[in-house]
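Exercise: predict the fold of this chain.
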Amino acid sequence: MTPPRPASDLDAPDLRARAVKAARGDAPFDILIAGGTLIDMVTGAHRDADVGLVGPLIASVHPRGTRQDAHRTIDAARHFVSPGLIDTHMHVESSMVTPAAYAGAVLPRGVTTAVWDPHEFGNVCGVAGVRWAVEAAKNLPLRFLTLAPSCVPSAPGLECAGADFDAATIAELLAWPEIAGLAEVMTMRPVIDGDPRMTAIVNAALASGKLVRGHARGLTGADLNAFMAAGISSDHELTSADDLLEKLTAGLTIELRGSHPHLLAEFAQALIALGHLPPTLTLCTDDTFPDDLAAHGGLDNVLRHLTRHGMRAEWALRAATYNAAVAINRPDLGLIAPGRRADIAVFRDLEAFSAAHVLADGVPVAADGRITAALPEHDPAPLLDTMKLAPFTPADFEVKADGDRARIATIAQPRFTQWGKLDADVVDGCIVPPAGTALIAVVHRHGRADGRPRVGFLEGWGTWRGAFATTVSHDSHNLTIFGGSAADLAAAANAVIAAGGGMAVASDGKVTAVLPLPLCGLVSDQPLAGVAEGFRAIRTAVDAIADWAPPLRVFKACFGATLACNAGPHQTDRGIADIGAGRLMESPVLSGQPG
C-alpha cells in the first residue's frame, strides 16, 4: 500500500475530474458502500445513504439503492457507516509493540488516523529515534501524524535522558514534511515562568505554522491562562469533571483520554449535563498497555466506555471524527461527504462498535476484525543496544548515613506526590527502610551520565514483598526499580539489564517474570499476542508482591512515578526532584539526627 497521503493530494486535477464524472453518473465508482445507515457527523442524524468512492476520494453520498454501477460493492446492510476514527493523542511505545503491530491491532477496530507523539523513542534515541518513527510509519495503512517531541527530557536539569532537544533541534524536526507539529508540551512550569529554553521551543513551533499540543495537568486560573497565552492549544491531562469544564470554558481543545477509565463516568455525566457536545471535545487513548490493546482495542474502547456511561453514540463518534479532524487541521478527514477523504468505518452497531469493514484512503484494509492490508515492518537495528549498564549488587541500592538514627525525606502517595519526612534506624552505615515505606531507585541507563542508582523512599505505596524493575519509566525511561529490599532490587534490575531492557519481577532474590523490550527498552519486535501474554505475566507477578489500592495506587502508577515535569517530588536518575520548588536532592538523608 502507498503511504498515507497528506490533505493536499486530494486536489490532484485528474482525481477530482474522475470523481466529478462518477458523481454525475457518467462513470462507475471504484467502490460503492451500499445499504448502510450513514451517521451524519454534522447533524447527528441517521440517513439511509450509499457512498461512492473514486480512489481515495468520496465522490458521492446519495439515496440508498439509486446507484449500482461500481467496480466493487461493499454490503453495509443493517450496518452504520462512519468516518474512520481519529485518535488525537497517543504513544505507540506505550503498547510495547512496533508501529506495524499497533496498526494491525487498531485498524480492524475502525481507527484510521493516530496523532503520535514518539517522545519515548526521542528520550532514548534522540533525533534518530524520531526519524525511525517517521520511517516506520510511512508505508502503513494507518495514518500516523507524527509530532516532534517537545520535552526531551521532560525536566531539564532534574533528570538526564538519552538526548536533549533544544529549540534548534525542535526547529529541525518541525522542518521535516512528515512532522505534523509539536507534541504535548509537558514542561508546564518553565513555560508559565517564561523560561528561555521552553519559550524558544514553543515559539519555534508557532513559527512553523503546525500544531502545538499541550499537557496542562493541574493548571488552573492564572497559570492556565499563561500556559495558553504562550500558544498551547490542547490538553489531555484531566483530573476531574470540574477540571474538564474549566478547560473547555478556557477554550482548550480537549483530548479526552481513555487511559484513566475511572474518570470517564464523571466526564460523560458532565458533558451530558451541558446538553450539547462541545466542538472542541475530541478523544484519545494516550497510553494503552499491550494486554488492553489486544483484548479491548484502542479508541473504539473509549467510545464503548463513554456510551456505557450514558453519552449518545452520535456524540462519541463526532468527538472521534469531525471534532478531531477540525482540531488537527485536517479538513479532508472526519466527515463522509463528497470531496472528503475515504477513511471509513462500517460498524455493526453503536454499542460494541464492532467494525465489519474499514477503508483507508479508499482502500479496504480490514474486514470482520481482521487486517487485510500489508503491514511492513521497519528495520529495528537503530533502536537496539540502549542499556549502557553493568550488573548491580544489593549494596548498590543501600542508602548511606552516619550515626544510629537519621531523618529522611520521602515521596508520599502515588500520582499526586507530596514531600514527607520520617525517622529511620541506621545499621552498619545504611538506612533501614521505615515500616510502611517502599524503595524506589532510578538508574541512568543511556550512557550520558553516571549510572549510579539514586534511591528514595516511598510512602503510601503499601508493603512490597519483592521488586519490580522497568525501563518503561516516563519520560526519560531510565531504569526504575520499586521494592522492599536491596537484594530484590538488584535481582530485578539485573534481569532487565540482561534482557536489553524491559521489565522484570523478583522475590526472595529470585526472578519470577521477565518481559524483554529490546527496542529502546520500550518495545518488542514480537507480535502483539506474545507481548500481551508476557505483559500479563508481569502484571500477575507484580500483583503477588505489591498491594494495590485503586484508583491511585495501581500497577500503572509505577510507569509515571518518575514523571518529574509534574508537580511534587519525583525520583529521577539525579535524585529527588521537585520542578515547582526548583529542588534536587541527591540523597534522601536530611540529617544525621532525628527531629
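Check your answer against the key: The CA atoms of residues 11 and 17 lie 10 Å apart.
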